[in-house]
């Protein structure tokens, strides 16, 4: 085709133009029919309904958001209260375990005493050292009681804890800077039957009881239906011995 002479009209292009005109006429008829059936208000009514629905949903979302925020505040408040109660209960439990609080319950009272001084001349081979309660004797009873489930313990008039240290010098007891003379009394709270059984099987207690029979060392055990032990009042600071 020569571009200087212009395009030639073909039967295909005529058919195309005829089709376009027909489509335009059909679209016009459809638009007119829609307008007539809807009386010119259908599209505006649908738009109004959509706007109304959006407004209602927006209001609903705002109301639910406000309710959610209020519920969240309540949950946070209750969570804080629960955390405070949990912390308080844990603190109380730790204090009771460590010995920082007063304890009441059933238990035992064990009293150990030196043998009568007159036993020295009547028992062959007995020495003065055999007639007194030693540190290892007290340790044997105390360790057996802890093993038997003791919950709280007092030696003489002082509450003792797992880390408490005492020392015997001769027939005197040194505890928390104070000096005690016999008899030595251990008061303990816990399951009485289990603690009594623990004493029965403790090797150190068995040795002491042999000397009870041999030189008349004293052992008295009293079951307490209920007793109260004071809170531990000593220092919780750990100290280390340094060799000089």
Summarize the structure.
The chain has 244 residues and is of the alpha+beta class.
Question: Globular, elongated, flat, extended or rod-shaped: what is the shape?
Answer: rod-shaped
Proportion in helices: 40-55%
Helix run count: 6
Give the integer mean of the pLDDT values: 74
Strand content: 15-25%
Q: Radius of gyration in whole Å, from Cα?
A: 48 Å
Reported for the largest beta sheet, the result is: 5 strands, antiparallel
Low-confidence stretches: 1-16, 19-46, 238-244
* Strands in their spatial order, largest beta sheet: 3-2-7-1-8
- Helices and strands, in N-to-C order? HHEHHEEEEEEHHE
Distance between the termini: 120 Å
Structure classification: alpha+beta
Strand elements, count: 8
